[in-house]
Amino acid sequence: MNQFVENKTQSTYQFWHALSHPNEWRTQQPLRIVKGDGLYVWDDKGHKMLDGFAGLWCVNVGHNRTEVKDAIKKQMDEISYYQLFAGVSHPLAEQLSNKLIAMTAQEDMANVVYGSGGSDAVETAIKIARQYWVLQGQPQRTRIISLKNAYHGVNIGGTSLNGMPVFKMNYGPLLEQCIQIESPWLYRNPWNCEDPDQLAQLVIDELERTIQYHGADSIAAFIAEPIQGAGGIIVPPDAFWPSLRKLCDKYDILLIADEVITGFGRSGSMFGSRGWGVKPDMMTLAKGLSSGYVPLSATIFNHRIAKAFYDNNDHKGLFMHGYTYGGHPLGCAAALAVLDIVEKENLPENAAQMGRYLLTELQKIKEQYALIGEVRGKGLMLALDLVKDQKTREPIDADSDIASRLTEACRDAGAVIRPIGTKLCLAPPLTIDQAGCDVLINALKSAFKQVTA
Ligand SMILES: Cc1ncc(COP(=O)(O)O)c(C=O)c1O
C-alpha cells in the first residue's frame, strides 16, 4: 500500500507550487534561487540574474539590505515574537502604525489592522466593510463589486472577488453576492473602445447600472487594484479612479484600493490610488511594506470607518478578527527599515523615471517582433502582451510554450522575468538604475532573437 501511494505521488520534492498543476513539477526542475544581493539573484548553479520581478513584486528595496537585516536582528535579540490581541502590544507595531497613518494623512487614514500577507489584508478589508454597514444600521449591505481580471488573493473572500475564472472554478461555493464588472482595459474590451475617457465612462456606466440593478442599499463596497497586476498589468485610463470615487460617493459605497502591489512606490507614486488623485476609504498593503524580508500586511482605513466603531458601545462594534502573526515584531522591524529607505531614496520617483525608460526601450523591441501586440505599464509594473496577430490582438494560445521559452531564454541571458498567461511581466526592485534596466532589456532582446529565430 505504501509503495503504491509513494509511486503515485512521488516528485523530486514534496511541496506544491502555487498556481500550477502538481503534475507539472513532478519531473521538471524549477529555478532554484539560493542567493540575492541588490538587484541580483543567483541560482544553485551560480548563474547570476537581474531580478526583474523583485521576487514576486515585493523586494522593492532590493536584496540583502544591511539596514533591513540589522533592524530584524536587533528586534530578534530583544524578542522574536509577541502578539497584538486584546490589550497586548509591542513597540514596533505601535511605531509602524504611527508611521503608516502619518504616511497616509492626505488620505485621511485613521487605523491599522495587521496580517501576514496580501490575502489576509483583503480578507480583513471585506470583514471591516461588512461590519461598518452593520454599525450603520444597514446590515443588508453585504455585496462587494470588483473588476474582471482582478486579483485579490487566494482566501475564500479574495477568491470570490477575483475576476479571473481560473482562480474560482474548483473552489465553490464562494462568498455570495460578489459581482465582477468589465475592467477598464484599453487594449482589450468588449466595446472595442480605444478612447481612454470614453472607456472610463463605459465602465463607470456599467458599474452604475449594476448598482441600480442590485440596489445601492445591498452594496457594501467596491474593490479594485489601482493598476491590475496579476490580471496582466492593466493600467486604467486616468479618468477611471476619480470617476469611481465620485460614483461610490453618490451611492454611499465604500471604496477599497487593493494596494498590495502598488503600495509604497511601485506605480511611480507612493500609493497607486494617490497616483490617480483619489482617497479610498480603505487600503490593503503587503509586499512592498516589508519588501518581503519578513511577511507582513496591513489593512488601513479612514476616519469615516473608524468613527463607526468608536461611536458604538455594544457587541456590534466588537472586532472579532485578527491573526496570530499579524504585526509580527520582525515584520514590523523590517517594514520600519524598508519605509525609511523608500522615503530617503525617493523610490516612487525612481520607479516613475525608470519605468518611463523601460517602456521606451520595450517599445523599440516591440517594433521588431510581430509576436508583441502591446507593451504597457506604469512605474515599475510593465508587460509585453504576446499575440498571434497584432491587428486582431488575439493572444497566443494559452497552452503555447512561447512565454515560458522566452522566460527561460531571458534567464539564460541574465534576467528573471515572469510569464503571466500570455504576457511577460516585469517588476524589478524600485532601486533599479539605468544600467540595471539595460541588463533587463538586453536579456529580453537576446531572448526574443533566440526564440523567434
Ligand atoms: C492586488 C493583490 N492583492 C492580494 C494579493 C495576495 O497577496 P498574498 O499572495 O501575499 O496573499 C496579491 C498577490 O499578488 C495581489 O497582487
TrEMBL record:
CDD domains reported for this sequence: OAT_like
SUPFAM superfamilies: PLP-dependent transferases (SSF53383)
Pfam families named among the record's database cross-references: Aminotran_3
InterPro entries in alphabetical order: Aminotrans_3, Aminotrans_3_PPA_site, PyrdxlP-dep_Trfase, PyrdxlP-dep_Trfase_major, PyrdxlP-dep_Trfase_small
Gene3D superfamilies: Aspartate Aminotransferase, domain 1, Type I PLP-dependent aspartate aminotransferase-like (Major domain)
Family named by the database record: Belongs to the class-III pyridoxal-phosphate-dependent aminotransferase family.
Source organism of this protein record: Acinetobacter rudis CIP 110305
Record keywords: Aminotransferase, Pyridoxal phosphate, Transferase
Cofactor(s) of this protein: pyridoxal 5'-phosphate
UniProt name for this protein: Adenosylmethionine-8-amino-7-oxononanoate aminotransferase
Family matches, as PROSITE patterns: AA_TRANSFER_CLASS_3
GO MF term (any one): pyridoxal phosphate binding
